[in-house]
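Notes to self after the call with IL:
- keep both proteins in one doc
- input above output, always
- annotate only the second one for now

Protein 1:
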Amino acid sequence: HKTTVLRLLRTLAEQHFVFRDGSHRYHLGARVHELSSRGLEQREVRAIASPHLREFNRAHGRTTHLSELAGTEIVYIDKLESHDHVRMASRIGLCAPLHSTAAGKVLLADLPRDELDAVLADLSFPRITPNMITDRAGFLAELATVREQGWAHDREENEPSINCIGAPVRGASGRAVAAVSVSEPDIVTGY
């Protein structure tokens, strides 16, 4: 009911989880951003990978992501921008499809078959760009290649004119706990 929603929004506003603008619309407030930052700080893989990602980004100047598996998507838990003027649509906290990202392919290729089948059962393979793999059989063949070579390639499958290479970040058990991906604009690589 409207009155219940308004009462809840007022309580959230008092605690700075939301704020109301001059047009009487509510937006996420400072406390949400604070919680988000705390959540990222608590991710051990991010803390361990961060200095290595910064060093790589400094040396090569390409957009670098750290991602984790989140259902049928990946979630970016760290991002370092490229040193040129090409910017990607990604940002920390944003989710992206598993089937169209190098990071997603790497994470899926590392799953045991029963876990992979469970994820693929929920995946619909929507077409985002013309280069995407949109069928299960083709995607399974791609994952077999990824498994064999140990890394994945996204050929303008998630964003037009952006190519990515992804590699697993393995935990103590040897399983992939995250993925690192490096993005390069098509205009640079000439793919």
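Protein 2 (the one to annotate):
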Amino acid sequence: GKRSSTQSAGSWDWDNLRKINIFLKYSVNCPDETIREKYNAMAYYLRAQFYYDKLKTFGGVPWYDTVLEDNSPELYKPRDSRELIADKILEDLDKAIKNGVETKSLNEITKWTALALKSRFCLFEGTFRKYHDELELQSSADQFLEKAVNACEKIMANTTDFGIYTDGGIDAYGNMFISNNLSKCKEILLFKDFSYDLNIKHDVAMNVFSYNTDLSRSLMESYLIKKDGKAVPFSSIDNYKTKTFMETFEDRDPRYRQTFMYPGYIRPGDAKPFIPNLNLGGYTQIKFVPQDPQQNQWGCSYNDLPLMRLGEILLIYAEAKAELGTLTQADLDKSINQLRDRVGMPHMVLSELTIDPTLEQQYPNVNGNLKNAILEIRRERRVELACEGFRKDDILRWKVGKLLEMPQGVYIAELNTVFDVTGDGVTDVGVFLNKESVKPIYKKKVLYYLEEQGEKTSISLSEGDHGYIILTNDITNPKKFIEPQYYYYPIPKTQFTYNP
């Protein structure tokens, strides 16, 4: 199937590459050198992005930088190696950086977006080679990580154009994702511009808000908790596993309540606090959900969507430095701790980091003398970039595909009773074994069942009569992540017919 988006993961589709190569073939006809170089730089950027997407999806693929004809023998060539594709992507990015527009422009491709893509790609490829020992490419991992650091430094040095967005104080983080106009936001390197007046709108708010998907227990636990002036893991707190929905919000990193729906949240346009949809199992997302009732309808949102922002660059910088083994406190202060400052969280202090067993369990293959820093930076990345589309790639490049096997949701302390999720002291919602288990006093509450007419419903509890919500389907058909096969998509069968 063809997809028009650049994220055509899983599809063996080459239309966009052909368009780019045709452009590069004929752009020589443009007599104005400045204009020609500007648009060539954009084309090189787009070709790098195209192949980065293919590399993430399939590993090695055929490299084409010319326009093929019907009878070109190269149509039938085998796949090129991962190494060749990665080097070609770097060549294209370097051309895009060299000739890209210097001036900051937030919805076109410039030198700065090319630097950002280079840092993103180099972190991906460097860590992929480091952790995927089956490729036997570890010896070349560091050169990619160094290039990532270098590209980040160039962006970080441009303080005239770029800086962490802090308008609105502690709420600045959440505000950045519901703004109707990011064109003046210093943190943004590239955004998708939506507009009410031009009727360019999207569906993000409706898709994320308790409709299609929910957030996992594992993400919820990633947000640190403030204790005695320090930021400590949520999992270091007594009884963290059995805290109620409301208790999980006490003293947490403010990004938690700016990403997850908090108790008492009133959906724009509603009169009463929203009751989470437990059929989805997890926690309701409010990141990207505008404060305006008009926008919270299908096809009606026009908040601008960030595609690249300085926050990501700072995280790439810290992670690449930690993976290289060169990370210092000064590096943390100009990267991670800027993100912590924005939300008023205590700093990450290298000398005080201890190993968090939960993180160690998630990422068993991390070692070396900066192990605890790498783990802590991965946590920060997950929290800061939550719901922005990075998590799957991160799981793949870190070689921890097993994390995808059994997602868990909200903790339910006991069956057949109701609890408060809105924080007003009145019970709202409960999970019951079946309709027969409901006492008459509970009839007006929002009720969910584990069984209907003797059949299991879509949700179950991890311990049977209490525990985390898990989807029944995950129990009856457990997800199996096969290593290393599932780190790549299969090449579509039809392609073997065309080219054995």
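Annotation: Confidence is low (pLDDT under 50) at residues 1-8. The two ends are 20 Å apart (CA to CA).
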